[in-house]
Amino acid sequence: MNEVDRTDGASVWVIALPAAALLAITMASRASFGLFVSPINTATGLGIATISFAVAISQLAWGAAQPVAGALADRYGAARVIACTALALAIGHALIPFAITGAGLVAALGLIGVASAGAGGTSVLLGAVSRRVAPAQRGLAGGVVGAGGPIGQLVFAPAVQAMILASGWVTAMFALAALPLAALPLARRFRKRVAAIPEVAALQPAPVRPRSTESSVPPPSALAALREASGSTSYWCVTGAFFVCGFHVSFLLAHMPGVIELCGLPAALSGASLALMGLFNIGSSIVSGIVIQRFSMKLTLAILYALRGVGVAAFLVLPKTEITVLAFSVWMGMTYMATLPPTAGLIGGRFGTRHLGTLLGTTMFVHQIGSFLGVWLGGIALEATGSFDWMWRLDIALAAAAALVCLAIREPRNASAAKHAGTPGNCRPATAGA
Predict the structure, then answer these.
(1) CA–CA gap between residue 12 and residue 398 (Å, rounded)
(2) Taking residues 145-172, what's their average pLDDT?
(3) Is this prediction's pTM over 0.85?
(4) Domain range holding 156?
């Protein structure tokens, strides 16, 4: 018999922190790989566009694997998925120094992308965590999990930069290959499987059935949940905005070191820039999770995308100095992982958490299509024009479009009830008649 998850009375922090640590581990390579682009190009002569394409394939593979990883975790449990894919992630990193052709680099990075979706994919982690906390606590839990990514960026980006400068990129890559092994003990935290905490009844009004008949009602399948979501305009508005998020974030992570190099600024500034983004992502992700517990999730998303556009526009017109780069890194760090809690909250609030791994995984796939384009087009722009100017302009246009799309989302009417249902000592949703 298939089992599902439940953890009664457990602290949000105890549940969310292991997931945040897993996201930090997998983000270490994804956030710092831009530091390897120039060294790999120097060592192999493959060209920036070719290497950018390989990195973009990794981003796309990560997104394509998200729905599969989420569905496998929904079916077999997150612990098994995390453990198996962590080993594959280590192997993928170990293969990169031996990839001397474009095809070899695409294969190695593709494996890393697929493995990252399971070892630390948001569909797996947020799905597992959301089933273990009450609806009123999911905003905070999502913020804590989301903060894991920037913590990984904060800690590992400068460390990787220092290792590349001191010992070479090959040594740094082998160090990244060893890191996913730390995910194996963390996976055990998600091994226990019990029943999911129910949603607020107002989301899908239904009579309360006697305990003896509950087990006779078959749960909807993941495919049925996906069909229901695909018929919702609001689901595609959330997902379309997240496409823009992927475009923005992956372009920055992959090409910000190249922007800094192009401006004639010190190479060490690249690690500092990525670290600052990570540092300010930590607080902003948690704050975003808290904010959506009290205010509109769709308005929060719209404001975040608008702020991104303002930041990129300012960076485009200001002189490129060390202070400008660091200030821009702070600004973007305050906005980009902060989109994850309201995105997951809007999907979970409308469609429930039983198949949140599958639904969020599909949204993440669209996010990664944006990531693919952001990374690949950045490399093409640099080789074709010698600068990233038209990419910055495209960033601004997409940010404005995402902000407008978010305003069209129909937020569940009972979102406020879901956020405030229950008490600290008994975080259970109210009954339909309450």
Answers:
(1) 35
(2) 85
(3) no
(4) 12-198+222-419
